[in-house]
Amino acid sequence: MSKIYNPSGGYRKLHAFNFATIIHLGTISFCKRYLPWKDDPLGKTLGQMVGASRSGKQNIIEGSERAKTSAETEIKLTDVAKASLSELQGDLEDYLVTKGSIPWSIHNPDHQAVVAVMLDEFAYTDDLLHDYWIFLLAQKKKFNLWLEERDDIAAANALIILIQRATGLLGRQLTRLEQTFVERGGIKEKMFAARVEARAEPTAPQCPECGGAMRKRASARGPFWGCSAYPKCKGIRKINELEHTETDPMPR
Question: Would you kindly state where each structural domain of the chain is located, as residue ranges?
């Protein structure tokens, strides 16, 4: 495990990312079917809604990839993803109201049915992109009754519920990221700690056989200095040998 870099890039296993991807695909389909050009001649509403759904998904990706070197950037981009999805929810609420409807009650059977649908876990394979999209489309299919097969009111409500699930997960992820940052610090602190640790390690002695540099090695009996030219040179020293053999006693 790296002393400096953070784990990064595992976003395809995040339910928040998979929800965000389903939301993005569902939003594109929704806008194509229910926002005709005559009602949105400049394409502004459509562009904003699709853009917000894309931002939600893409910022999770970028935040996960940037996590390697910047916990601060990961936190900021995760927050942007959450905010973008919330923006999309606002547009969907407005759509419902303009159609003479309002968001489903939490007691509505359809609301409860969408909430009850669980995502499967994605397992990384040696054919990542191909297998991921087989997985993702299978997950989206679980919601197609509301997203694709019924009317615009059902689709808008389903998207709102999926957004709420995604933003809830992102909110909990932000809490975890904050706790991790407080406990472990950022990359500058890790780099400083790694340099302090490196400076604290004893300087490698010369090999008694060939005069070359030695490396710290380990055996069943404990650590020792071994020649870096091994196996050509098999010179060794005890770790504490220099303390006893290379320091002259004080004269009396």
Answer: 11-194, 202-245
